[in-house]
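Our consortium's second objective concerns turning raw sequence data into structural hypotheses that experimental partners can test. To show how far this objective has progressed, the report includes one record in full. It was chosen at random from the queue rather than selected for favorable results. The single chain below, 159 residues long, was entered without modification.
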Amino acid sequence: MVHVGIGYDVHAFAEGRKLVLGGVEIPHPFGLEGHSDADVLMHAICDAVLGALGEVDIGHFFPNTDPRWKDVSSKVFLEEASRQAIFRNGKIVNVDATIIAQEPTIFPHLDKMKLNIAEALALNVRHVGIKATTNEKMGFIGRCEGIAAMAVAGVDLPE
């Protein structure tokens, strides 16, 4: 039976950090504030997979109070979400995500993001959907104060 989970993450822009989305370093004057690499896309997908498994969120697996996770690549988090599915004899079927950012332009980086996420989750790249949109200049995202991402994941689990 396929179980579906949803994930959401948001981080503010911060000076002196690299901007990493979907495991891709994107040229931009600001990165995202966070304990790890603050990859909102990978964090949202991780929460979606964990949600489909009926698990708690990413913060319980990788608390921002634990120095082991300081500046770590969020690919580690996705790989653990995949291991959790395998541990339950499950198989991640697909993920679909949307990045919400007024800037920078995301489209040129989507293919590489999809490859990185597919690799971390041991998925066929055709089963990874990523889209990007702006916030039409409204709210904190529209004022270029941060980036958000939302995701859904399907995980086939035995009854």
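The partners drew two points from this record. The longest strand covers residues 2-14. The mean pLDDT is 96. Both points have been shared with the crystallography group to help prioritize constructs.
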